[in-house]
Design brief:
With 326 residues, the chain is mostly beta strands. The chain has two helices and 26 strands. Strands 1, 2, 3, 4, 5 and 26 form a six-stranded antiparallel β-sheet that branches. The chain is globular. The protein starts with 16 loop residues before the first strand and ends with a strand.
Amino acid sequence: MALHPPYNSTYPLSAPLLTSYGTRFRIGVITDLDTESKHKDKKNTWISYYMKGYLTLFSDHSAVKIDWDPESVVLESTISAKGRGMELSELVAFNGKLYTCDDRTGIVYEITQENQVLPFALLSDGDGRQAKGFKCEWATVKDKALWVGGLGKEWTTTTGIVQNFWPQWVKSVGHTGDIFNIDWITNYNSLRQKGGFDAPGYLIHESGVWSDVHQQWFFLPRRASTETYEEVADEQRASNVMFRADEHFQEISMIRVGPLHPTHGFSSFKFIPGTRDQIIVALKSEEKDAEPVASYIMAFTINGDIILEETKIGDYPFKFEGIEFI
């Protein structure tokens, strides 16, 4: 048996089904319940809802159809930080397995076929020499490594006073668990400058994907503002912009995707397999008074042409913050 097994590039994790009108993929979405993740009955237990369904892409790429399973899966963990845990912020297929990340503890979990969550890596904040866990918000695969990023803006008080720059670092995690901590302050700030959101303005990122096809980074920020961060006002500063950047953030472009709904911010996206990274399926979530209201799913081309309008995901008052082809 090899000490370090080879990387498994299987994607999507299950084979799509060809139908008379298109291609049907298995998908999953996952919640960040914030303080509601604490189990109501079990001691020292935190939960997240993992919902599965099907995405059908019509053969002519003119439409996308979503069908959800009637029941969701409850994922449980007994690991927390300061009484909070399982606030899962992304879903990503990596090395032939499915992973998620808890933005409270900084733990990257594997989600098994039996719906268990197994700790895979522990990400410390910023440069990796901090006692606090990394507030992970997005994850993608690049060069056979799992890249995990945070909010992408300075950490501030609720009124915008800068405390540190740790959320502007990213992590590169190998398939055997080795971790590299990378300073991305310049990269994140380059996106801000391109969009006209220089400090005291800001971007907040919860979704980022590397495209091998285009050799570019794609970002759909959750928030975008030209004003100083302020916690209450931030709920009304959702973004409808999409950035594309080359590997070194030297060439950056920006477009707008669909109408702007000030409370609907992007939380996750993936390229639909088989489209040569031309079509994106994305999640948006909505909060009011720091409480989750709803989540939405939509699909569009990389040129911003809408294929599936924002569609509410069930009647759940949850933030779905990760989507993946499973």
